[in-house]
Amino acid sequence: MRKSIIACAALALAACGRNEPAVPPQPAQDVTVTAEEAIEGAVPLAPPVDTKPLLAQLGSPDTNLVFAALDELVEVDGGSEELQRALIKLLDSGPLHVREAVLEAAYSLEDKSLLVPVLERCLNDPSETFRDDAADVLGDVGTVEMVDVLVRNLTNEHEDVRDNCEFYLQAGIEVAITNTADWFVWWASNRATFIMED
After folding, report:
1. Domain locations in the chain?
2. pLDDT value of residue 125
3. Is there a contact between 165 and 173 (Cβ–Cβ < 8 Å)?
4. What is the pLDDT of residue 2?
5. CA angle 46, 47, 53 (to 5 degrees)
6. For the chain, which residues score pLDDT lower than 50?
7. So what's the pLDDT on residue 88?
8. Which of 27, 147, 159, 181 lies most in the core, judged by the most C-beta atoms within 10 Å?
9. Is 136 exposed, middle or buried (0-12, 13-18, 19+ CB in 10 A)?
């Protein structure tokens, strides 16, 4: 209080000497910031990553470059259409070790809905391990089209595929069905109104 009186007096004296009206000190401005504002100010958002060079790198004949691009893309791309289309191309035509890496990368994507048709083709691969990996990715897609493929492949020629499809149907859809024929009947009756739950 004493300091503010002295400050006012000093201002008044100074103003008298200049023939200017005294200006009282202004109250301090509120500089309170929210936690969100503090975080935003302290940690600037990273600029978006240009994925075009990485997507182009997926077409390289050097598999080390392909693997490096896959690793980076799954960190910065949650499943853009461009990335999914590039993965489809690799799954359809790449060597087995590249296709295995693609499945591993695909599993990490938030959106893999465009991969459903190629994943179904992967269920008929000669490699049982590869078929199992494809079924794991397929079972994580979470769309009606995924259920179409799972039901359809309950009659796949490979026993492991049939077992995996039944497993993912039972895990994702809470209905008491124990045989293939009943799955086909149930799906035919429910597909039009079926909604996948998170």
Report:
1. 135-193
2. 97
3. no
4. 42
5. 120
6. 1-17
7. 98
8. 147
9. middle
Q: Could you tell me the pTM of the whole model?
A: 0.74
Which residues have a Cβ under 8 Å from the Cβ of 134 and sit 6 or more positions away? 103, 119, 122, 123, 125
* Residue 3: per-residue pLDDT: 44
Nearest CA to 180 among 166, 192, 167?
166
On whether the CB atoms of residues 168 and 138 are closer than 8 A, the answer is yes
3-state secondary structure of 100: helix
Per the CB < 8 A criterion, the answer to whether 102 and 74 are in contact is: no
pLDDT above 70 as % of the chain = 76
pLDDT of residue 13: 42
DSSP state of 25: P
Decide if 173 contacts 145 (C-beta within 8 A). Answer: no
- Termini Cα distance of the chain: 62
Quickly tell me which residue has 């990715």 as its tokens. Answer: 137
Helix 96-107 vs helix 81-93: crossing angle, to nearest 10: 150
User: CA of 198: how far to CAs of 52, 107, 125, 173, in Å?
Assistant: 31, 16, 29, 11
Hey, what amino acid is at 23? V
Q: What pLDDT is recorded for position 6?
A: 43
